[in-house]
Amino acid sequence: MLRLQEIRKTFNPGTVNAKTALDGLNLTVADGDFVTVIGGNGAGKSTMLNAIAGVFRPDSGRIEIDGTDVTNMPEYKRAGILGRVFQDPMMGTAADMQIDENLAIAARRGKRHTLRWGVTAAERDTYRTLLAQLGLGLENRLSSKVGLLSGGQRQAVTLLMASLNRPKLLLLDEHTAALDPKTAAKVLQLTDEIVEANHLTTLMVTHNMKDAIAHGNRLIMLEAGRVILDVSGEEKRKLTVEALLEAFMRVSGSEFANDRTLLS
After folding, report:
1. pLDDT tens by residue, 49-61
2. Are both 8 and 137 inside the same structural domain?
3. If you average pLDDT over every residue of the chain, what do you get?
4. CB neighbour list of residue 53: distance below 8 Å, 6 or more residues apart
5. C-alpha torsion angle, residues 186, 189, 194, 199 (rounded to 10)
6. What are residue 84's DSSP bridge partners?
7. Is the CB of residue 40 less than 8 Å from the CB of residue 255?
8. Does residue 87 belong to any structural domain of this protein?
9. 243/241 Cα distance (integer angstroms)
10. 260 exposed, middle or buried (CB, 10 Å; 0-12, 13-18, 19+)?
11. Which of 127, 139, 196, 218 is the Cys-Cys partner for 132 at CB 3.0 to 4.6 Å?
């Protein structure tokens, strides 16, 4: 479903502030894979997601989604085949619009827009059913402004919006990092349920090693813009934080020195 071939990206090239964020990155993700992505600050995690989403064009390399070369495809065109949830609960939704209006916008992503009435009664019934599955009581608050929701409720709605049209690829960029532990656990549970129910190919960047181990069927670790560790199947199921740290030291030749990750 996804193939990254020799992706390179340097910011501020030719200056004293030059930073190589992706350095010959290679990655192949099969249809239905749920891949957790971990690494220290500056490892290239979010940069990789931005390259896939089309936020910028890589300096070199090739990006394929479902067999189609999207390397030079603009971001707005990729939006029709991608879903994305950001770290900030305020992103990904229109705060001054109602819950049902936000869901309607997501449902129409990549489709022709007309001057018909915005949200139909049938659509509201569908949205109530979908929201009820979240278990947050939002099915009775369709007319509430999204900006009035808590961070966890808003991330749950954003997750539902991102997966509404069953995108070819779901990108989760530390989508629980700004939430308290209890709320984060609930959003991760919903993530597992939505990904499994819709058979979504997913990349989830996280700073939490325990979450990276507990979720998904495959784990990759980035360092200096490259994949240095790739674990899946039975090996991943038996993985522990200690074993993950040892593996990092073995393949990188240095200690994993990221306080945010180690303290999670």
Report:
1. 999 999 999 999 9
2. no
3. 89
4. 75, 78, 82, 84, 171
5. 160
6. 171
7. no
8. no
9. 5
10. exposed
11. 139
Q: Read off the tokens for 37.
A: 């992505």
Residue 114 has pLDDT above 80, yes or no: no
Q: Are strands 226-232 and 218-223 parallel, antiparallel or unpaired?
A: antiparallel
DSSP letter, residue 21 = E
- pLDDT, tens digit, for every residue of 162-184? 998 899 999 999 999 988 888 89
Are 104 and 71 contained in the same domain? no
What span, in angstroms and rounded, lies between the C-alpha atoms of 90 and 154?
8
SS3 6: strand
| Cα–Cα–Cα angle for 110, 218, 261, rounded to 5 degrees | 95
- What residues are paired with 81 via a beta bridge? none
Two structure tokens written together for 157? 């709605």
Residue 174: Cβ-neighbour burial (10 angstroms; 0-12, 13-18, 19+): buried
Range of the structural domain that residue 238 is part of: 2-81+167-262
Angle between helices 151-163 and 181-198 (to 10 degrees): 10
Q: What single DSSP character describes residue 254?
A: S
